[in-house]
Each structure stands twice: as C-alpha cells, then as structure tokens.
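Input for the complex:
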Amino acid sequence: MTDISHSGPVLAADGTPLKRSLARALRMQKLRALMLIAPLLLFILVTFILPVADMLFRSVENRIVQDTLPQTVEALADWDPASGQLPNEAVFAAMAADLQVAAEQKTHTKVAKRLNYENPGLSSVFRKSGRKVKKWDLATDGPFREKLIGIDDGWGDIELWRTIKTYSGTFTSGYFLNAVDMQLGAEGPEIRPENERIYNTMLVRTMRMSLIITFSCIVLGYPVAWILANLPARKANLLLILVLLPFWTSLLVRTSAWKILLQQQGVINDTLVWIGLVDDANRLVLINNELGTIIAMTHILLPFMILPMYSVMQTINPSYLRAAKSLGATDWTAFWRVYFPQTVPGIGAGSILVFILAVGYYITPALVGGTKGTFISNLIAYHISTSGNWGLGAALGAILLAVVLLLYWVYDKVVGIDNVKLG
Amino acid sequence: MKLSKLSALAMTTALCAPSAFAEEMANELTLVSWGGAYQASQQKAYVEPYLAANPDVKVIWDESSAEAVAKIRAMNEAGNVTWDLVDAVASDSMRLCDEGLAEEINHDEDLAAAPDGTPASEDFGDLIVSDCFVPQIVYSTTFGYRTDLIDTPDTVCAIFDTEKYPGKRSLQKRPIDNMEWALYCDGVAKDDIYDVLSTDEGVEQALAKLDTIKDQVVWWTAGAETPQLLADGEVVMGSTFNGRLFSAIAEQGQPIGMLWDMQSFDLDGWVVPAGLPADRKARVMDFLKFATDTQRLADQAAYISYGPARASSAPLVGKHAELGIDMAPHMPTDPANSANVHVYDYEWWADNRDDLNAKFQAWLAK
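Predicted:
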C-alpha cells in the first residue's frame, strides 16, 4: 500500500499518466457519441428549442415603446404621475416629434396596439392623431399641448401618460401580471377587478380536468390492457388493432362523432327517451359542458394509456401470481400485493403521457366544451391567432410550461421517474 | 427523336421570348380564403374567368383566412411572405394595416371604375373602412329560427324572451354583436349603444341581460354550427352568417326562417400583404383589378347570398346559378331585409376588443 503511494501516478503504456490518458479516451468517446447525435440535436435546437425560446421571450420583451417614442420617454422621465398634473409642453412637443417620425414609418399604430392592451382606447387616439401630425411643422406649429388635445381628448387624460411612462422599459412584467389576473397600477402590481379575472380560474380548471381525464383513462384502460396482455397472441393482436384504430381516424371526425352521440337530440338521449329512462322534456345535458370535454378527451387519449400499460403487463411473469395463490393469497390479495405493484411503472408512463397531452389540448375542448369545459390552451390559441396579443399568449404558455415541469418534478419526488417504463 | 426534341425546344423559346419580354408578372398566385361555399363562389366568379384570360397563371388556394392576422405577422417576421392576396374581414384588415403588415391601396388608381365612370372610391363608398382594404361583399350576422318549433319572431329581442320562444339559442362566442343586441333589448336606443358600452356600468348592463338566457345558450365558434344545431333541433333559434342560413333554407330545404331584424352588417374583402416582390405584386394587382370590377362582384352573388360591395353591382344581381331563384330578396342589403339594421362600429371595437373580450370570457367562465 505504501509502495503505491510513493511511486507517483500510475503511467499508461506511452508514459502519460493513466488518469489523463483515460480521460482523453473518454473524451474522444463522448465526442464521437456527440457527433452521432449532432444532426438530431441541431435539428431539435433549430426547429424546436430556439423557436420556443423566442416565443417565450416575447412575454417580457417591450422595446417597442422606447424605440417608437424615444423623445417622449426621455421627456417623461421628470414627470411624476402622482402630481395629478398633465406633463408639460416639452413632453407634448416630444410626442408630436415622435409621432411624426412614427406616422411616416407607420409604426405609430404598432405602439398604439401595444399600449391599448394596458389602456383600452389608446389605439384610436394614436391612429387618429398620426395622420394629422404628419402635416405639422414642428418648428412653428406649437404649442402642441392644445393642438394634440384638440385632435383627441385622450391626450388630456393623465392615465394615457401614466401608461406610456409605466410601459416604457425594455422589459415588462405587464404580460405576466395579466396572465395571473393582475395589473400594474399606480402603486405597483394589483389584482384586477373581479369582472376581468379569468386566467387563474382557467389554469386551475385545466389542471383539475386533466387530472380527472387521466384518472378516467387509468380506470378504463387498466382492464383493457390486462385482457390484451393475457390473451393468446393472435387474439391480442386483433384487439390491439381496435385500440390503435382511433389513431387512424381524424381527431375532428372523432370529436364530431361525440357531438352526434351526446347532444340533446343525439343518439344517447334519443335511446334513453325511447326506453323511458329519461323524460322527453328533461333530456340529459351531456355536451357543451365539463362532462362533454371529459368524455371526448378520455376517449381520444385512452390509447396513450393502454399501450404503455400493456407493454409493461406483458413482461410480468404469470408464475408470480400462481405462486402467490399457491401460498394462500386470495385473488384480491394476489392482484393487489403482487400483480398491481409491478404494473405501476406502466400506469406512471401512461399517466404522464395522457396528462401532458391533456393539458395542452384545445381543439376538442373548443368543440365540445361549451363555456365550462374549455381549457387555458383555448385562451392561448385565442391570443396567438385571433387577438394578436402574442406577449400575453407567450406569458400564459410560459406559466403552463412551468406548472407542468413543477408537476413533473413532484411526480419524480413521489413516484420516481426511474419507475416509469414504456415497455 | 433528337430532332423533334430540338425543334420543340426551339419552338418554346420562340414562343416564350416575346411573352417573357412583355410580362414581368409572376405566374403563380396564392389566394387565401375561408373555404366552403364562399371560396367556391370566388373561384367561379373571379378565378375561373381570370384563368381563362390568362392561361399561364396557376392559382393556389389556402384556406387560412381565420388565422390571417397571426400568419401574415409570422410570415412577415420570418421575411418570407408566401401569400399573395388574402381574404379578410374588415376588422382584421384594419389590424393588418395598423401593424404595417398590409399594403395600402390607392382605390381609384388600382381598381376599375364603375361602367358609368364613377371612380372606385365612390363606388365602394363608406365600405372602404381601411386604407388597405378592398371590399368584396357585405354579409350580415343574423338570426335563423325553426319555423315548426316556435312562433314566428318579429324582433331580435325574441332571443331574450324564453317564455314566448322556449328552447335553446345559439350565439357566437364573442362579445361583438351580442353585447349590442343585449343593450338594444334592454331598452338602450340604437344610437346610444356604443356610448353606453363605453362605461363599466354599460358592460355590466349588457352582461346582466345576457345572464338572463345564459343557461339557454349554446355558444358557437364556426359559422357552420348554427345551421347544424337548427337542423338537429338542438336550438330553436341562433345567430350565424346570412349565407349559411340561405344555403340551409334554399339549398337544403330545412324548416328554418330568417329573422333580419337588427342584423349586424359586416364586410369581407381583399388585403395585399406588405413586402411582396415586384413581379408577384404586379400579378396580384392585375388580378385584384379584374376580380373587384362591377361585373365580377355581381357574378359572385349568383353563387352565394352576400351583397356585392359596389353600388354599381347591385342592379346586376340576378338569379342563383343552380337553383334559378332571384337572389335580390336574399341579400342582407335588400330594402325589405334592412329596415332595421345594426351597424357595427369598427373603430370602437378596435379600441375595446381586448378589454371587452377579457370581461366577456370572465363572465362566460363564471
């Protein structure tokens, strides 16, 4: 033992220390592995990670105000909104100068759109003024305070100037605050009035309903997976095709089929009325509410639950169950104590798949969810494709992503991610 | 073999040379529209005659008008605008214009004058709601009802009268129009609607009125939903675009009647995305001039019951191309139908849409 400690580092055949030579070999190996996955890595980076990052960045980015109205932002620095006084003539002159440049480049309406999110009504003030300010002579046409207010009363409103001052920074918390039903008031962040609060409700509803859908998938999928795993291969394959069949049918077709089945004049209600279980005047409301979304989405996501459970159950040796029973366990005990624990990795994998897919769904909830069964993703889709408020859409998306990652982390702590098996 | 190939080559060069010299227009045109019967009417009334006159041109349709604003913005940011001409509703055209994403149009220079020489800007008149917008049609959002399930309603306020007209109603899942109808039926004078709606109390009042029928409403997002819901008997009355109701009534013979009272006029038209290369823009402007002339707009009305946006087209509206019925009485602009209309204020909604939508969504989720 002392011999080794005195003879210095162990050397490799070429005389370099073994440690370094090993490290180099490992590095070469890692590099080779990296080269192999490099095309995929680059592809994912360019087509997935960078665009997502770019989109999420929009939730805080706010350069447009100082880029479009540089002189105004500078002039407003000395003005205190709490004074209750309108800004002085210098600010109005700066605004006139900025507006003239902006109207020439047609950017005044862009900045107006940004500010209109925070203070409804601003967009028409800017649109109306841009056209007229273009014709002014900045050197002689002052004073601009009266002239601007003459075009639109909006310029005489302190709130307008406060909004510009508040949202003149390079970055803004405005979108994120909006996404959690708050706003930047005169004294910092405050909760929005009750009739504008919506996003927290929607986030909680999305999580709650996704959990219900995941749970219904477990309950419905478990017996199916069990039958699949325990049938002879030929029959199992036939049944497996039935499980996979929905994948080959368009999502819209499947969702519309549920509409026909579930609506009040639909197949299910008609049958129940015909049998006499339901009174014709009081047909069941099965669609355009939470129930409709849960039913349709459970059906659509069920294969994602069955397949991982099936592949895990297939690997369970049937002799364990026989052994348990021969040792005196009842059917239930044998199932619950011996079989079920071995299927947990499959349930875990299916649950993660179904839950994450459910949280981001928006087409099905939009079609069958009515007002109570829509998800936060429906609002994200609305802001991205209809209202054009990408900043708010990005903030909502970032929050959703964070919540999912948080749940994933909790899941890892509680169940353990190593315990998840796809087969 | 070789010879024939060579001579073919020589012939094509000979044929192409003069035309390549005369034309600096691209030969591909990507048009964006809404799909369905509406796009078909554009295909038959504008595109087929244009292609007959310009056999070299190829037209590609993209059915993405519902996401026009988002997609044009994304294309513009990526610096790769693949669309040439986009069909958009008036409010979307305003937003595209505001953001500098659409080309400004000089209506008198770029578009054909009426046959009697009236310049285009006068022929379209007030319908030019934005500098980037070339109006095509006037459509309306109005109500249809089941003639066999309820009494004939004569006012829009029938939607709020669940005692006289029991059953579910379908309304579009957005504040626009619904808030106005609610205030109108709550006793607000038509001219005061937007003044009232500009106050918090006004918004509360409109939502309170809608609250009275909230549990009786099926909310729709796609125009095809109300005709389907009416046909299934899921709802007894519902709002949708008048052309959809026309095809349910006239083409499919459903027991549905039209309620034109307080129909909400809206416009649909063409928008040219900003930043097209010169050759493509030249082709677009050539097509645009052809497709929006008096005769073409009148022709479109033979396929769908939307009113042509030019005043000079109205007298030329004839019969339905397949059914042979007179189209004029089915137009939202027909005097009998437009006795009491709601004129939707674009400017006001451009300012307040985001704010009202937040309140409307919050109300829906309650």
